[in-house]
Each structure stands twice: as C-alpha cells, then as structure tokens.
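Protocol step 4 of 5: obtain the predicted structure for the target chain.
Materials: sequence only (see below). No template structures provided, no constraints applied. The aim of this step is simply to have a reference model before the mutagenesis design in step 5. Sequence pasted as it appears in the construct record:
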Amino acid sequence: QGVLVPGLGTFAVVPEQVNSTEEVYVVRRPVFQLDMDMSCLRELVFPTVMIPGDIVIMPLDYWWLSQTNSLPPDVVRGCVEETILLYSFQLRDRQRPTFAFENIGILSCQDNVLCMQFHCSCVAGLEIQDTWVALLLT
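Step 4 output (structure tokens):
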C-alpha cells in the first residue's frame, strides 16, 4: 500500500527481487515518488521512481493523524498543506532545506539532487526476514 501526500509525492512499499549467486531474495523496501510542481524544481535533479501499478495508493489519512496528536482533522490538513507549500517556496527560492519525516526518513537536497533517504529503522521495520538485503537496496 502507498500513501499520497498531496503536492509532495507518494510513499509506498514495493517488493523487489534480488538475485545472488546462491539465492533469490524478494524484499519489501520503501520508495518515494516525487510529485511536486515542476516550477519548484528548476535546476534540481531527482531520481525517477516508478511505483508499480498494482500497489494500492491511498490519500493521506488526516483523521488518523489527528488521533495521534489530538488536533482536529481540518487543522492537521491545513498544517500539512501549509508545510508543503512553504517547502516548495523554499525550493523555488533556491533554498535547500531538509524535510524530516519522523520514523521514515529525510527528503534533502545535496549538490542540486533532491532525494529521499530512508532511516535504517524504517527499512528494517518493513522487511523482517531479509533486512540486510533491503538495507543495501535502499
């Protein structure tokens, strides 16, 4: 399943097959597919990530988020929208802030490359059986 964060992109978990000389591994690993206004991304390069069509993409659940922090869903939605808008304005103004997602990873821009770096704990939490293979892929 994937989650669409409007104006920013989609987070998903995808299966990936890895062939070694001794074994074939199928691991689950996190990916992020950027979906921002292209005018924000002038002069920036970002990896092209394709989420397979069979992955179910759900909208961000503002109600669930509101339950984790005791704020009304409309306030949570407004905070998310304003944060993404601020981030896109900063990118447009050639600022290079990092965008931290708690327990997931960091969206950062280094040498004009915008990429998502997932925390090892996030990858390990998704793939219990072949954790090291998933960490090497991610």
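Step 4 remarks: The chain has one domain: 2-136. The chain has a mean pLDDT of 85.
Proceed to step 5.
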